[in-house]
Amino acid sequence: MRALAILISTGQLIACGVVGSPVPPDYVGVAPTVEKQKKQHALQAEHEAVDTGAPDLSLDGHDIGLPPSQPVGTR
């Protein structure tokens, strides 16, 4: 009798599909994803605004002394 109960409950679980608690619709779909991305972009913008104190590492306006170029391998 116990084996029959286990067999029936296993059959019902398999027939139901995914076993577990259902996901509320508030967390599924396009709108929650867009809201999450907006929050992430806002946090990134805040971090970038704070990090503007970093030194400028670009080479604009800096002259680098290079040796004069000479042709190589000409006859």
Which characteristics define this entry?
75 residues, mainly alpha, 0% strand
User: Cα distance, first to last residue?
Assistant: 99 Å
Largest sheet at a glance?
none
State the helix count: 2
Residue ranges: pLDDT <50 for 5 or more in a row?
none
Taken as a percent bin, the fraction of beta residues is under 5%
User: How does the helix and strand content classify structurally?
Assistant: mainly alpha
Order of helical and strand elements: HH
Our Rg estimate from Cα atoms comes to 32 Å
Instruction: Count all strands and give the number.
Output: 0
> Which of globular, elongated, flat, extended, rod-shaped describes the shape?
elongated
- Mean pLDDT across residues: 77
In helices, the fraction of residues equals 40-55%
Description:
With 75 residues, this protein is mostly helical. The chain has a domain at 21-48. The chain contains two helices and no strands. The chain has helices at residues 2-16, 30-50. The protein is elongated, with a radius of gyration of 32 Å. The mean pLDDT is 77.
How would you briefly describe this protein structure?
The chain is mainly alpha-helical and 75 residues long. The chain has 2 helices and no strands. It has helices spanning 2-16, 30-50.
SSE blueprint:
Layout: H1 2-16, H2 30-50
